Every structure is written in C-alpha cells, then in structure tokens.
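user: can you give me the structure for this one chain? tokens are fine.
assistant: on it. calling the predictor now.
[tool input]
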Amino acid sequence: MTGSKGVAVGRVWWLVLALVLVSSGITAAPLWFDNPAQRQAGQELRKQVNFMAAANVSHQFNELQRLLNQEALTLRQQSELLTEAYLLIQGFNQTMASRPIGADQLGQMPLHLTSPEGSAFELATAVSQQRLIQLVIDLEPRGSDYLAARHWVEQLQQMVHLNWPRFTATRLIEPHQRHVEVEQIRVVLKLLNDYQGPVLGQEYDADLVAAVQRFQRRHGLAADGVIGPKTRSWLSMSPAVRAQRLARNILRQSHDRRWFAQEYLLVNIPDFSLRWVTPEGQRFQSRVIVGRNSRRTPRMATEMVSVVVNPSWNVPRSIVRKDLIPKIRRNGDYLAQQHFDAYDWQGSPVEKTPQQWQQASYGRFPFRLSQRPGNRNALGRYKFHLTNNQAIYLHDTPKKSLFDKPSRAFSSGCVRVQDADLLARQLVQYGDISEARFVRSRRSNATQWFKMQRPLPVYLVYWSAWMGQDHKPRYRRDLYHQEGDLDHKMTIAMGHQLSR
C-alpha cells in the first residue's frame, strides 16, 4: 500500500477481496467507484474515517485520513485505502463490542486494530448484492446523535487553522462593563453558534450576556453571565480539542448503549446527573454528587436489588483512616456527637472516654465504626443497594445544600441522590415492595431492608460531551482526566474550588 506504513490492515485483504470480486464477475472499475451507489458509500466512509481520526482513538485512523487527503491518488489507490478504512472501522467496532462498560479505555491507551476474519468476503458479497451503502452505514456509532455530532465535528475541523485565543485575564467581566477581551469573546461565541450579533464593540451588552449564559449552560456552569476563570477556560478550548472530546464521547456512548436494557437508571458522572429511562420516556431525574478525583466513582453496569430505609453506615476502613481519624484527633467527642458505635475485630462493643479516643487515633486504631440511623447518618434516610464488589451504591445525604453547587464531586466514590425520598417511593412501586410496610418503616428509626422483586439495571457512565436536544454539543469538565485533551493549567482553572 503506497505510503500506508502504520495503517497495517494489510494488502492481503485487498488481494482476497479482488479475487472474490473477480470470481463474481465484478471487474469494471475499482471498488467504491464503479457506480453512483458505490461512490456514495465511499464518501460516507471518508466521513467516518474523519470522525474516527478526530476522536484520536488510534493512530491508524489518523494515518488513513492523511493518506486519503493526498492529492493525485489514482482511483485504484483510493479504493485500496477505502477498503482498509472499512476493515479498520469494523475491527474497531468488534474490539469495542467485546468490552463492558468501564473498559472501553478510549483516550487512555492506544488501540492497535486488525480486521475481523471474513470481512473481505462480507464486503465482496455486499458489492455483488448492491447493498454496499447499507453495509457502510451499519458501521456508524449507534444512536440518533451521531450525524448531528459528525456535522459539528466537521465544522470544528474547519476551524483548526484559526489562531484560537487564550483568555487569560483575571478580572471578572460583569454585564454592561467594558473589557478588552469582549470582542474576542464575540468572535468565539459566533463561531460556536451561541451568538449572532456584531463582533465589534468592547461593551459587554445584553445580547452578548444572553449568549454567554447559553454557553455557560452548555458547559455545566452557573449561567450567571459573569465571565470568570471557568468561563474563560471553556472559551479557550480549541476547536481540535472540542472535536476530539465530542467524537470520542459519541463513540463511548455508542459502546455503552450496547449494554443498556429497555428500562434503567443512568448516572452520568461528569454531568452529576441521574435519569430513570423507560421505553415510554423519562420517569425520574435528579442531581447527584459523585466521587472526588482521589476517590473516583467507577464506571460500571450493575443492578439495584434493594432499598434500605434508615440505613446504618458501616464505615470502610479507608474512610476511617483518611477522614474520621483526623476528626477524632481534633475532637475526642466526635464519635459520640455523630452517633458512631465502635467495635473490636471480634465484634464486641468498645467504649472510651474522649481523651482515650484521641489517644487511640494516634495508634493503628484496631476498631470498626458504624454510624447509627438518624438525621446525622452520612447515608441519609435511604440506601439503594447495587450488586458489585466495589461497595458502590446510591444513597441519600443530610448535606442537601451541596446539590446547589454546579460542580459536585465531593463523595468517596458512592453516589448521593437529590430527592432520594421521591426515588424510593417510585422504586417501591417498580420493585413490588409492600407500600404499607415501607410507610411504617419511614416513621421509625429502625433499619429496614426491602428486596426489589424486579431488579433495576443501573449504569454509571463517563460522558463528558454529548449532543443536546437543540443539536448543539454539551461539554462537562473531565473530572477524572479520562480524555487526555486538557493540560493541567486548564484542568485546575475549571476546578470546583473556583467560584465561576
């Protein structure tokens, strides 16, 4: 293959395909150019290659894109490259289909792809049956958002040659103020289709404020119209990075949705959101709190099997060590004030004075801690038990004010749910739980487990970009540095410790 070092699908596939085509009597012109339908399939395949290259998931797609963009290629050379493209995309799809949720590793390690066995014969058969275009369309990522996302990626790729501005000023820009950055902000928002007004003028006027608010909502920020560090960081994100983030996440969503049941709970970690999706529509939605970067909420497919009312909290050893022991050192009454019981490793209760607890916190602390049910319990009034070996579950929280923050990565890995009472009530109906017994349990402080007769699938996913209902991309901060497209300065600037 001329200049195809690194693509590595192999000339052997082209030779096998050529032999099959000859045996079928199809020899008039190179594949992908013999008739209008084949040319249409070839154009569609080029667009898919560009999308895969934008996602930057494998050097093989980037090399194919470079080769296909060379001038003066013969039809035969283009056809060979397009055949390699088809086989590579098929190989990518097959590789991804074998990986469960959380194991796609897009952006974390390079993919080295090979074409599936029998692909050349399948392709030749499709040509002979005049269904090549359908075979190519079948390669597309699943989901109705793909074509809209591809359109945006194409638009962003046309902007990569621009000298994209970096907004580095530190002063907040309030509505109706004047600032030297305002004209550049107008240009950027116009390019990103958030603003349709004039690009000249340094006054931060009402039309531009409305555009900034739209931009802030699309990026998960508080839509206050004030331009500060977080808004500036998102404005500075280059078109190439935007294209990569969007394309990669569309591929990730397509991969994850292969595993989805018809009805399920979906937790999108970077969006801090939970949705209960049914074939008839959305049944429930709420904000959630997820794990901080040092204690990440894992991606997984699991099931909700029980609802626990008035749960006690058996504190994991890691949280005892990292969180509770420092508090005990500062305050020997902490365990009593927060309604914790202590036990030795044989399960016998342990009683100590505040001074003795402080002294014990400087040793190896050979005790298990359990927080009694009640208003101070860290799990709140409800725990939603999931089947997994990582002790991850959904639960209520007494710290309701945290749900008002735009960025909500505060937990130790589990997912805290706003409106947990409403979710629990709906689960009672879904899971065929005795409503009378459930109501009685809520009036007491006793812990009650309710097994759901119908387990509910739950998917914890990491989608930091997707297409909104208005066909515009939505972006969220890369909480766990999974995308490989943000430098440390930008990540810090978009951190939750900043106010805007």
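assistant: here you go. The longest strand covers residues 448-461. Residues 1-6, 8-12, 22-27, 491-500 have pLDDT under 50 and may be disordered.
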